[in-house]
Amino acid sequence: MLVELDGDRVVLANSEGQIYALAELCTHAECPLSEGELDGEELVCPCPGSRFNVKTGEVISLPANEPLATYNVSIDGSDVLIAPAG
Question: Using one digit for the tens of pLDDT, what is the confidence trace for 50-66?
Fold first, then answer.
């Protein structure tokens, strides 16, 4: 799911009931990851096929070689709250 946080596009991914938030654009080709697929803990880019770990943002497979920015996520009732990490 695509959301915006202070003008930044953020993709939310639900992996085994846990919500993760990452930068929405692939670090290789700037393709929208919200249009990609979630495969377990891996977010697959729809363009070049790069894979990223939704927990850490780390690259799992090329052609991307830079990790995605991650965001802190907390749940308040039915609301998903996100904030920049760090």
Answer: 999 999 999 999 999 99
CA distances from 21 to 30, 34, 37, 68 (A): 17, 11, 15, 10
- Cα gap 10→82, rounded to integer Å: 9
**Is 67 within 8 Å of 61 (Cβ atoms)?**
no
CATH class of 2-84: mainly beta
In 3D, which of 1, 54, 70, 62 has the Cα closest to residue 32?
1
Q: What pTM value is reported for the model? A: 0.91
Q: Which of 70, 56, 74 is nearest to 21 (CA)?
A: 70
